Amino acid sequence: MPRIPYATQWIEEDDIEAVITALKSANLTQGPLVEEFERKVAEYCGAKYAVAVNSGTSALHIACLVAGIKAGDEVITSPITFVASANCALYCGGRPVFADIRSDTVNIDSREIEKKITPRTKAIIPVHFAGNPCDLEDIHSIAQKNKLMVIEDAAHALGAEYKGSKIGSCKYSDMTTLSFHAVKHITTGEGGMVLTNSEELYEKLKLFRSHGITRDERYLQKNDGIWYYEMHGLGYNYRLTDIQCALGISQLKKLDAFLSKRRKIAELYDRAFSGMRGIKLIPESKNTRSAMHLYVIQVDDRPRIFQSLREKGIIVNVHYIPVYKQPHYQKLGYGGLLCPKAESYYQKAISIPMYPKMGEEQVSQVIKMIKEAVGV
Residue 2 — pLDDT band, cuts 50, 70, 90? Predict the structure, then answer.
């Protein structure tokens, strides 16, 4: 039986043709396909503005920059996430503060967020883990009460819904960041985006994406001619190419179909594993529709089961090691048991294969191998 990865991209001929067309065009980068991709993603999510960048990490970084995070500031986020959700605060000189998760959904617990707020807190970065939306209304209320910015990390959640609104609409946040890495819902190879409803934040995001430079006459301090530009801050080269945006535009047309396939796979897993002795599942949050980026099971004998599945060609993974356990964070002083629920979850978590290209035969094989490994 061929190896079954935990995730992979799905690229078809029309995607390849879209990229070839872009390669033959006059603009390989900084051309019209970037704005088209931004517009279409914003429309899909229900946001006013979008700024495409070269990775989800870059999206988080410039979101923190426009939120004004600086040395001495604190940013509250989840420990169960990829390191970029916390690193973005470090990039700005700030300090990540980790609030523990809910033991059911594995999302950041809004009650724990409140406990972590200090006079130095400037922003909250809730992470929609596995594509399952956080308690955004509660988080938004906490942020408003304490005059904090909210930056949703929706790297897992493109297409998810919360109380009837698409994640990315920024109904309950100042900004939302997306990732278009190869294993995400749609891909540009590498890539990311920041969504917002604030024109002020939008203009700042564009500056930080491209060296802090503008040619917009509205912001120039003087104007020597049509060639003239000004650097208004220390920005970065975080631009996404037209080649990548061509792929993104093509993939976006398939997003709803991809999401439907993910949900069908999740339903098959749910039927197979619900109520099974030795396996704990993560429920979908109330009033949400998950994007089903990951399917995680929790088991007591994780090392043995993980190894057994890998040996049988089921390439499982673990999402995630609590960020503060990483050596770099330990050197920064994040010692001790900071988030007990996060550490308890980590000891048992296994991400099993979940991607829209999976066929029913592969899903059945995964289910069979897991049942054998668990001993059911």
Answer: confident
Say which amino acid occupies 123: A
What is the pLDDT, as a whole number, of residue 337?
Answer: 78
As beta bridge partners, residue 152 has 176
Identify whether the C-beta of residue 96 lies closer than 8 Å to the C-beta of residue 326: no
Question: Scanning the structure block, which residue is given the tokens 């904090």?
Answer: 148
Written in H, E and C, the secondary structure of 283-321 is CCCCCEECCCCCEEEECCCHHHHHHHHHHCCEECECCCC
The whole-number pLDDT of residue 3 equals 94
Going along the chain from its start, the domains and CATH numbers come out as 4-252 (3.40.640.10), 255-374 (3.90.1150.10)
Mean pLDDT (whole number) for 175-181:
98
* Token representation of residue 204: 């700042």
Average pLDDT over residues 133-146: 98
Least Cα distance to 193 among 64, 83, 81, 42 occurs for 42
Judging by beta carbons within 10 Å of its beta carbon (0-12, 13-18, 19+), is residue 51 exposed, middle or buried? buried
Q: Would you say residue 199 has pLDDT above 90?
A: yes
Distances (CA, A) of 323 to 124, 310, 339, 340: 16, 24, 11, 13
For residues 260-266, average pLDDT: 98
Phi/psi of residue 129, nearest 5 degrees:
-65, 130
One-letter amino acid of 91: Y
If you average pLDDT over every residue of the chain, what do you get? 97
How big is the CA angle at 5 (ends 357 and 286), to the nearest 5 degrees? 70
